[in-house]
Amino acid sequence: MKLVVETDDNTRIDTYLSSNEEVDLTRAKIQTLIKNGNILVNNKPIKNSYKVQNGDEIIINYVEENLDIKPEDIKLDIVYEDDDIIVVNKESGMVVHPAIGNTSGTLVNALIGYSELSKVNDEFRPGIVHRIDKDTSGLLLVAKNDKAHLFLEEELKEHKIVRTYVALVHGVIKHDTGEIDAPIGRDKQDRKKMAVTSENSKTAITHFKVLERYKNTTLIECKLETGRTHQIRVHMKYIGYPIVNDPMYSRDRNIDGFGQMLHAKSIEFTHPRTKEKMTFNCDVPEKFKEILQKYKEE
Fold first, then answer.
1. Is 31 helix (H, G, I), strand (E, B) or coil?
2. Which of the residues are catalytic?
């Protein structure tokens, strides 16, 4: 597994990896791997005391039984497909790609059981151009070959892929529209979280508009100008309107076993082969509608 460090806050490597959402290993296991030379930084062995630097390339060589990512017969909601791409509507609760120690039941397991995928990424993320969180539902763009993947990856870097979300947030937002321009980095108090911070952060911009106002909540639409980890969830908490049912960034008790009320409802991009502008939309899940109705009736 390969990772590129995107922080320069001098965190110890064992701490950095144990808190990374892509690495499902305990700190003790990571320390053992480092001791045995199975974790390299910039192709060199390191000690547990090594402090990661922005841009470091970390390679984890972890061999265990059944490590290979296996295809699985999991039903997919395919919105569109051709020889180059798949647009899939991911259900809430499904992890996008495997991580070390968790190699089954993910969207990638389902996808490799369904189709050939690009090999631009490592073995854990074939075809995955961008991600959405486990408990966020909605549209995801997948590449079936390397040429398509490289084109879409560049489009993503240049902010030419437009992703629109719908979310239910706590509180009644008075403004009809807004822009949140606040840098996001790793939360120093809890490294599994992200936070708005001026240290070791990256530019993050979210645009939102109000769709409906209820007694204690607001239904909004969000467009990402950048695509940082947990961006909408972090930004809405930052301005005082956390997403309903968010287990990490609000104080909610989970409602009906459903994740945060956040859905990737549309995606716009240029087709990698035809260069045609394409737009796809999908409605929120039924459970989202049921929970939304409860707040409408307050």
1. helix
2. 133
